[in-house]
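With this grant's support, we have settled on a layout for protein records. A representative record follows, to show the layout.
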Amino acid sequence: MFMCVCVFGQQNSVLWGLFCSLAGPLHDLVKRAGDKAAAEYASLELQLRSMEEKVAFATNQADAARRDSQQWKKQYEVSMSDYQKLSENSATQYANIQKKVTTLEERHTTSVTKYESAKKEGTEWQTKYEKLVAQHRSDEERFKSDFGALQVNSLHSLCSKKKNC
């Protein structure tokens, strides 16, 4: 409770009485306003701490996301480098295999040509052999018939000399 003490003397007693009658409620009003301001200040301090914590948490998350992003970027760059190396190796291997295929195709073509030539030559030799064998058989048949005729003639000539055959 607020006590009103007369400082001015008795001359302004009406004013002072009015002042003293309003002093208690004014004091209470000022005290309530101060308490309200203090409560709002405390609430704002709590909100400020909460926001500072949220900002700190968001900053930590952003830093972590930045680190993760940098790590993923490094992994991506390494992967791209590996991919390029593999692509170059694949291209080199493809070119080598293509050379080998071309070489093998040329060798195949050469081998097929040689085979066809050898086959044709073999066929020609087979034909010559078959003609020679046929000629040999016909010569043999002719020799046999000539020999048989000579035998018959020689028997006839012996018989004619001896006259008793």
